[in-house]
Amino acid sequence: MSVKDYPAALRRIVAQEPSRLIEQEINLPTISKYLDQRREYAQLVEQEILINERKQLTERQNHIISSIRKYGYWQGNINHIFDYQAANNLISRCDSYYNFLQQDLSQYDYHQSNTVTLSPTHISQDSQNWIVYQSGLNEKLLQIAHQYIGLPVGYHGAEIRLSRANPYGLDVSGPKTPHQDCEEGQKYPLLKAVLYLSDVTEDNGPFTIIQNNQSKPFTGLKGTLILADTSQQLHHGMPLKSGERIVLFWTFSSRRPRYPHRCITWPHSNITVRKMTKNMSVVQQQAARWREYFAFLLCPVRYYPFPGHNFFLGDRNIMV
Q1: How confident is the model at residue 10 (pLDDT cuts 50, 70, 90)?
Q2: Measured distance CA(319)–CA(53) in Å, rounded
Q3: Of 100-104, 111-115, 205-209, which range is least confident?
Q4: Engineering a disulfide at 196: which of 154, 160, 224, 295 sits with its beta carbon 3.0 to 4.6 angstroms away?
Q5: Distance of alpha carbon 48 from alpha carbon 237, whole angstroms
Q6: What would the DSSP string read from start to end of 243-284?
């Protein structure tokens, strides 16, 4: 099969086969190499934009990007990226969810669940709650993600989780097993932001990465912000030994994830995302609305551009 036959053949695969078989096809050496080449071309096309953007970055942003590239993570405070008022408004709104989440968690006994997640519906149904979703589109945060990923950023949304310790020693509170996030297939960067909404000690289930077979738990006070590449390194939440932990997650990848069929679950409809981002900048709306093109992205050979084809750059000029 020649390269020119890939689009039609892979579209048929996506339309007819379950995810397992799609993944097998994407992993075929010939197709995998082809996708790698197209991503490399896309990164070359993006270089001029990245260079121009780099001139506008603050010293703090450059330090954060360098830290993630060197160590795989950065740990600081939300005020290092967000201005004071925006950070205060976000944390105040998240604090208002605590009783709601605690009441939700109390409905389960310790053998059923030790973690609850704020539902996307709860976030989207009241415009006062949109700040949780919108804050992940902070322009300084998007610039950091863009510089690190090296391609236009796709925003995967926000998630708030409340976890409690289990007095019976059972661990049924979520992804406690070390794992790597799978959207980019552990091959390309994916950035996760972790914001502590409560003080987190080693007993409260800190976010942890594993490097060189050694665990690095991130402890910190309320307002601690961690940025880490969770595609290329193992990570997990440590089991809680005591107390509770409430955390906000934001996730970012390229708009052409290596395995788009792994991104099918999406908490908000396209209409809801448009509504929540209506008054935001073009850059923010593009990062949020990348999934409007999701069905088309499921054809793997259309992830990345090649000479003479401008689809990849076309979605940079979506609008709104």
Answers
A1: low
A2: 21
A3: 111-115
A4: 224
A5: 38
A6: SEEEEEEEEEEESS-S-GGGG---SS-HHHHHHHTTTS-HHH
Amino acid at 83: D
| Cα 56 to Cα 231: distance, rounded to the nearest angstrom | 27
- Edge-first strand order for the sheet with 234-237 is 214-218, 207-211, 234-237
Q: Give the number of other CB atoms < 10 A from CB of residue 302.
A: 20
Q: What pLDDT does 125 receive?
A: 84
> Concatenated DSSP letters for 146-196?
HHHH-S-EEEEEEEEEEEE--TT----SS--S-B--TTTTTTS--EEEEEE
Would you give the DSSP letter of residue 91? H
Q: What is the C-alpha separation between 38 and 25, in angstroms, rounded?
A: 17
Distance CA 150, CA 136 (A): 18
Angle at 115 between CA 288 and CA 234, to 5 degrees: 65
Q: Which residues pair with 84 in a beta bridge?
A: none
C-alpha dihedral (109, 246, 210, 77), degrees to nearest 10 = -170
Structure-block tokens of residue 32: 């995998």
Question: What is the enclosing helix (H) or strand (E) of 229?
Answer: strand 224-229
What's the DSSP call for residue 200? B
Contact indicator for 68, 228 with CB cutoff of 8 Å = yes
